[in-house]
Amino acid sequence: MTLESFDSLYQRALERKGGEKRLKQLIDIDSPALPLAQLTDDRVLAAFTKKVFQSGFVWRVVENKWPNFEEIFFNFNIEKILMMPEEMLERKAADPGIIRNYNKVKTIKGNAQMIFEQQTPDCSFAEFIRQWPCTDIIGLWAFLKKHGQRLGGNTGPYALRAMGKDTFLITRDVEAYFRAHDIITGGVQSKSSLKAIQDSFNQWHQESGRSFGQLSRLVAMATGDNHIQAE
What we know:
Blueprint: H1 6-17, H2 20-27, H3 41-54, H4 59-72, H5 78-83, H6 86-93, H7 102-118, H8 125-131, H9 137-147, H10 155-162, H11 172-180, H12 191-208, H13 212-221
Helix pairs in contact: 3-4, 3-7, 3-10, 11-13
């Protein structure tokens, strides 16, 4: 099926959301606390960890306990994390100041290992993320899923967005759009589906010059049974 033009997509979102001003408020993405250009590897590990713990849990609770995570895990210093013996990791996982889920706590060390192995004298893991082309963001998703721990599905993409990497998300409404337009038919995480979705976003990006994050929200605003409205 022929991909819908950006103009058509945008016009429908305008009609659904009540005009230019409201739509702009809905699709403009908040800036991360730390710009991507200033990102360091400890902040990458922190972002991964926060999203792993938020997955399937109440985000507000994770936010409230987050200062304790930072303190207990050495502000996510990669070398210190990797030097922790198993016994120390178990003790920290039982600390009431954090969310006591040992399987998720183990991902901190596992993802620190991924970051460490990718580092070179001339390129940090944060720089590796910065350099990855957004036109193949699904390739970065695949890398995180393969080499990281619990970074598959939308967890990795949400973490990337939190750290300022431009990425679309495959939310329920976004998936519904691509199914309704027969752009994907099988599993949404299959290689063919992900490529079809990436190709679609690439085309809209070329047509509009908008970020992949803005386009992702635009698709959600233009489809589904959502009733989001800006003040």
